[in-house]
Structure formats: structure tokens, C-alpha cells
Amino acid sequence: MRVPHPRWLWCWLLVLLAGCALDARPPARSHEAVAAEIRATYEQALPTLSPGKQRHYAQRLYRITGEARYLPLNREYGERLIDELRGEIAGHAQPGYVARRAREKLAGYPERTAKQRRRKRMLGDWREILYAKGLAFDLTQAHYHGLLNDEALPGYRRALDYLASVDFRAFLTDPEVLEVYAAQVANLVYYLHDLGVADLREATIAAFRERFPPSRDATLDNAVFRNKIYGMTHFVIAASDYYQRPVSTEEFDWVLDYFAANLERIIDETKEDIYTEVGIGFLLAGREEAPAVTRLRDALVAAYDPRAGMIPSESGGTDLDRGEHRNVLAIMLLDWPPRLYPGPVLAPDQQVQTTVFFGKAAGICGVSSAWMCR
Questions:
Q1: What percent of the residues of the chain are helix, what percent strand, and what percent coil, each to the nearest 5?
Q2: Residue 355: beta bridge partners?
Q3: Is the pLDDT of residue 24 over 50?
Q4: What's the pLDDT score for residue 250?
Q5: Which pTM value belongs to this model?
Q6: What does the angle CA 144 – CA 146 – CA 148 come to, to the nearest 5 degrees?
Q7: Cα–Cα distance between 256 and 215 in angstroms, integer?
Q8: Which end of the chain is more exposed for a tag (fewer CB within 10 A), N or C?
Q9: Which residue, among 209, 190, 152, has the nearest Cα to 346 in the 3D structure?
Q10: Is the pLDDT confidence value at 349 over 90?
């Protein structure tokens, strides 16, 4: 009988050990498991986050879970919001108030990065727009929470009248504005529509698509390409009233088809915040079975740092406050719910639970929340 050479015995032994080692590796985390770990990290850290990040997190977690434990932080935000808006509305009665606030807003605009400096220069050419944009955001938030009424905000129509006097069309359709501010443009055009101030959606989307045709993609540097993709995600997200209701697939086919066709470049050349919103866009349109969703979820899991319990920044940073936006989006993409919860309505004693299912809506609408049932 032929005896195997010792070297072959060692080779077989090494192969066997390697196989055992592979079998001993921990199984890959599921999408839902990673979402749960990130959520656990942020639930523990939530009291230490800045008020703005607490609001951002609690608002989104309420809208995907409907859990009452997120209501206190939302109510705290609502109280701050009403106090600020009452001051702004009162100020509009003072001559020169808006111009002064616009100068203050521009002076306080951050300049830490080249992108911020470029945006600040651009906004400086548009006089009151930065102030008007902030006011539109605050009024829309009041609208979302059932607080845009004479009881909570006496005189709020004065603020709406001011917004109606601003030439937003020129700003929203300006090619240079779109080049550096696309996501903010997408947000603003839907704020104005939700508030009943102006419907500039068609004109703005047409201007965006003219500025960023697919034929121009090869010439876009990284910053402009990211701005384009981020803007496209925000047309979808803003149309959903920020995760309060589904959107029409047909209305946003131009966005989702582009994402699907350019997915690998988007993953390679953007960052987690942006490509996570790309995935959420498919989900809001009811296209959870799209291959792009699985690919984006897998990319996000690959970026997950289990030691930090979060998705780090591009540079590897794990600061929880700075990373809240990125990580709450990750929770949403990785563990998307079968239904969304609008609001929450923050009017005293009128917390109405309205559930919006993908494909239909169910709920009870009281007087203070009738705007939700549209």
C-alpha cells in the first residue's frame, strides 16, 4: 500500500483547518439586525444629542413606527417651533424687520467647507431668499404637526402673505442655484406647495432636468454629481411630506429609472447619506422588491461599524451627533415599515393616529388634522 507523503498530509490538514475556520465565521448580519443595532445605539444616546438632532430622530422614528415614546421629543420641538414662529410673525409688523433678519441669516451661514462658502456666495445674491426659505420650513413643520392655525399661531397668514410676495420662481429655476443647492430647492418647492403659497413643482423639475440631463453626467465633478443625486432624492422625499405618505411611482419614474441605471456610480461616488436616500426613494414609491434596494442595503451593511454600533462618516468618524442624519436614514432603509404614520399632531388633546398604508390610507381625521386626509 502506498503511504501518502508527509507534505500531502500537511496540505490536507491545512485545507481541513481552513474549512473549519470558514465555518466558524459569524454569520453576516441581516439588514434588520443592523438596523436594530443602530437604533439601540441611538436610543441610548438620544438624551445626549443636540435638540435639533433629537427632533430629527424622534420625528422620523415616529413616522415609521407610530410609537408613543417618541411623542415627548416631538412635543418639545413643537413648543420651541411655536415660540420662534410667534416671534417671527410679530416681527413682520416692524419696518425693516425682514431685511435685518435676512442679513443675520446670511452672516450666520457656515463657511467651514468649500461647498458652504460657495453656497453662501450664491445666497448673498438673492437678498431675502435665505430668510424666506427658513420661514417656509418652519411654517411647513407647523403644518405637518397640526399647529398652523389661529389658535396656535395667531396672525400666521401674515407670514404666508409675505412668502407669497417673494419671487421664488426665479430662485428655484436658476441654473447656478440648482448647481449647488438642488436638495434645498426640491424641499422648498414642496414647502410652498404644501403651504398653498405657490405651485412651482412643474417649472422647478423641468429646470432641474434641463440643468442635469444624463448626457452631462460624464462631465460632472464629484461635488456636482453628488448635488444632482441628492437633489433627485429630495424631490421624492419632499413629495412624501418627509416620510408621511407614499408617492406616485409614475410621477417619479424619471428619478427611479435613473437611479437604477446609475446605481454603481452612485454607490461609488456619493456617500452613505445620499445613497441611503436613493434606496428610501424606491421604498416611498412602493418598489421594495427592486434589485436596487437590496444592493443599497447590502452596501450600507458593508459600511456598518459593529464596534461603534453605527454607520461611520466618510472619514471614519463615529461622533453620534454628527452622524445622526446618516444613521436614522440607515434605520429606515434597512427596516422599512409596511405603513407610515403622519404627523404627529401636536395640538393639545388632539393626538390623532392616522396610518398611511402603501396603496391606501386608514385613519380618523379630526378638525385639527383634516389636512392629513387629502
A1: 65, 5, 30
A2: 362
A3: no
A4: 95
A5: 0.87
A6: 90
A7: 17
A8: N
A9: 152
A10: no
Lowest mean pLDDT among 103-117, 214-228, 331-345: 103-117
Please spell the DSSP secondary structure of 90-147, one letter per residue. HHTTSTTHHHHHHHHHHHTS--SSHHHHHHHHHHHTTTTHHHHHHHHHHHHHHHHTT-
CA angle 361, 288, 369 (to 5 degrees): 25
In this structure, the dihedral spanned by the alpha carbons of residues 252, 253, 255 and 258, taken in order and rounded to 10 degrees, is 180
Peptide bond into 342 cis (omega under 30): no
The dihedral through the CA atoms of 67, 71, 74, 78 has a sign that is positive
- The alpha carbon of residue 344 and the mean position of all alpha carbons in its chain are separated, in whole angstroms, by 17
Rounded to the nearest 10 degrees, the angle between the axes of helix 71-91 and helix 156-164 is 70
Mean pLDDT to the nearest integer, 282-311: 98
Give the 3-state secondary structure of residue 267.
helix
Phi first, then psi: give them for residue 339, nearest 5 degrees. -150, 165
Least confident of 77-91, 110-124, 211-225: 110-124
Separation between Cα atoms, residue 63 and residue 328, nearest integer Å: 12
Q: Is the per-residue pLDDT at 17 higher than 60? A: no
Per-residue cell: 294: 437590496
DSSP-assigned letters across all residues of 281-329: HHHHTT-TTSHHHHHHHHHHHHH-BTTTTB---TT----TTTTHHHHHH
Q: Give CA–CA dist 108/136, Å, rounded.
A: 18
How many Cα atoms are found within 13 Å in the side-chain-facing hemisphere of 201?
17
Strand pairing partners for 362?
355
DSSP 194-247: HTTS---HHHHHHHHHHHS-GGGGGG--HHHHHHHHHHHHHHHHHHTTTTTS--
Q: What pLDDT is stored for residue 358 in this prediction? A: 53
pLDDT at 355: 54
**CA max distance for the chain:** 107
Q: Indicate whether 3 pLDDT > 50.
A: no
Q: Are 358 and 286 in contact (CB under 8 A)?
A: yes
For residues 297 and 302, give the distance between their C-alpha atoms in angstroms, rounded to a whole number.
9
